[in-house]
Predict the 3D structure of the following.
Amino acid sequence: MVLPFEEIYRSRYYQLLDEVFESNFWSDGKMTRTFEDKFGEYTNMYSCAVSSGGTGLLSILEYVDVRGEEVILPANTFWATAQAVKKAGGRVVYADCNREDLCMSYEDMIHKVTSKTKAVIVVHIGGHIAFEIEKIAEFCEEHKIALIEDCAHAHGAEWKGRMAGSYGLAGSYSFYATKTMPLGEGGMVVSKDKDLIEWMKKFRNYGKEVIHGNIVTYPMKEGFNYRISEFSAALGIVQMERLSVVLGWKRTLAEKFDQIFDNRVILPPGMKSGYYKYIVFDQKLSEETGKVFNCTDFGNEIEGITLDLPNSYWVADHHKCAPIYYGWDKAELSVDEIKKYLLG
């Protein structure tokens, strides 16, 4: 895998770095505000930049206050999701996924709900929005359960005009080095709730309230340092400016793959994926990227807990990912040429 960063965008980044140096603000300054504004405009939600997608989830869980309560999440997700719950004092309850989209099963989720359920975390796995997100959101609203969205894979994902992170209380995006929008490290919390985001901006900064660069007070005693640096925020601004290019490139390649693979994740009408992964089933490939998640990645496996999760284990055994990372050197080939290369 390569991480292309074209010369025009490098020059733009260097320009912004000069502005950072001239500003004398290397943290919590103009670049962070601009990055948040641009991401907020893109998602049509309020936004708060944080140090990682994981700390974003942890912060949302702290806001909900899950201490001593149960949080349902899919077993087939990165360990950070479960770890965020544990660090927030909650008890993890693992649910099965669906085979069609790899995301959490609505039916299994509702069977795991108890009087102690405080929150549900839906993970938009692979770059698309969970197919059952509307049903899950409606159920959570009716039962006064906080719905949190793990959007680590979901840059550019949308359905019926709504972006990932807009269905529940809040969502957390990741900008880790392998993501569709990489900063190396970093994350963004999004929400339609302005008060939540204002709380988040204090929480990420030791609970401080800062006005015009001056510490005014410490209204929050439980905050910690989950800030993003001005250097990372500047890169985030540039990555926002090139995101449409990256997504367009991935979607063009996905259209070619759609003509090659019948047994794949098939999106519902109107859904757009950011194609963090292109997922196929029961297919031998001459080149592939890592699986979305393998059995050894499951939270219950890491914890040594035996659970009945038939779909999650089936998906782990039967799926593979065709290379769709930005910069793949075979992307410009014709459909027939790609088919011959991948399938022989």
About this structure: The domain at 7-237 is CATH 3.40.640.10 (Aspartate Aminotransferase; domain 2).
